[in-house]
Amino acid sequence: MNPRRWLILLLILCACGDEGARRIADAGGPGGGPAISAFTATPAQLPAGGGATHLDWTVAGSTATLGIDQGVGDVTGMTSIDVAVTSTTTFTL
């Protein structure tokens, strides 16, 4: 698989995976806590060398601080953010 496809694949992965996110959302979150029902990256493909991508997420039941790793930081109260990507990156919400 070419590096560009790996980059896109890694960008759209949620920390718990698609199926895991659905199970957590259906259960109201682990221990009644927040539930991530969506975590996506747009555009679906970036050119070699990277570029800008738009991260969107939906979280229910969160009263705590939310953050995204890889230097993005605190995203409490937000539902999206634009980030610059220069290499294969996995973001965790």
Give a quick rundown of the structure.
The chain has about 90 residues and is an alpha+beta fold. Helix content is about 20%, strand content about 30%. It has a three-stranded antiparallel β-sheet. A two-stranded antiparallel sheet has the order 3-4.
Keywords:
93 residues; alpha+beta; three-stranded antiparallel β-sheet; two-stranded antiparallel sheet
Description:
The protein is of the alpha+beta class. It has two helices and five strands; from the N terminus they run H-H-E-E-E-E-E. The protein has helices at residues 3-11, 17-27; strands spanning 35-42, 51-60, 67-68, 73-74, 80-85. The strands form two sheets. Strands 1-2-5 form a three-stranded antiparallel β-sheet. A two-stranded antiparallel ribbon has the order 3-4. It is elongated, with a radius of gyration of 14 Å.
